[in-house]
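Technical note accompanying the year-one report. For the benefit of new consortium partners, we illustrate the data format agreed upon in the data management plan: each record pairs a sequence with a structure-token string. No post-processing was applied to the example shown here.
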Amino acid sequence: MSGHVPVMLREALDALAPRDGGQYLDGTFGGGGYAGAILGRAACTLWAIDRDPQAIERGAALAARYPGRLHLMQGRFGDMVSLLRERGVATLDGVVLDLGVSSHQIDDPSRGFSFRFDGPLDMRMECEGPTAADLVNGLPEQELADTLYRLGEERLSRRIAKAIVAARATAPIVTTARLAALIRSVVPPERSGLDPATRSFQALRLRVNDELGEIERALRAAAALLGEGGRLVVVAFHSLEDRLVKQFMTTASGRAPSPSRHDPRGLAPRGVPAFRLLTPRALRPQDSETQANPRARSARLRAIERVAVVPGGSGR
């Protein structure tokens, strides 16, 4: 199993700007790369969440290196408000979210996240609940096609769904290798070299874990927790994730387009935005990073900062 390599670590740390005595949250602990760097950058307290019980187990060694400073919590980052409230934390100085699946999950064949290895068609981050195999073998053809199109942006979703339904009538599809081979049999290779199974596997993973719903909940929760000067830093890896983050941060910073002049909502005065956009355009990884870690190629980093809103409507 290969080690976890945190993506855009320097850029994320610079955007988060951890300071001594601050309270921070790493909502996607994973392999602990971001957490270790944050704790090494400043004498701060870090709360860390991960849905995966295996990630929490792996984090014990890092917590032992920073006694009293790193606090691990198993759960969903969309529930960060309640998870922190249970521990007496109501305000944070910063939140970092490294979205998507971790290297540990991808590289473990038994988790079923990748078609690079043959393994059970699982994909569950929490190791509980319905699996990808349950979806592949149980969804009606139309719903399966819609899932592949909406969450995988797969143009040939109907063709794939039809092939899956025909194949599962013979025998259930329970391994990553069989599903990937089936998809490749009906989807031609792309000039880009992208494996024909990539988009379908992404779609199934997103649905199994309700990842887009979790991202929406996490963005709202993080914004509610940040105190004055607090920063939210998010690294996304595909367009569906990044679109949610971009829309949220654009709106929170008051940069959303004005309604049409024919729309009555345009007559209402705009309130003072609670956040300042730190990244007018998403930051991209350096060429040196993508060469060393190809998984970083699609990464996009965006960040906002809560500003003080004083009586009378002026910002900081």
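Partners are asked to follow this layout when depositing records. The first helix runs from residue 9 to 16.
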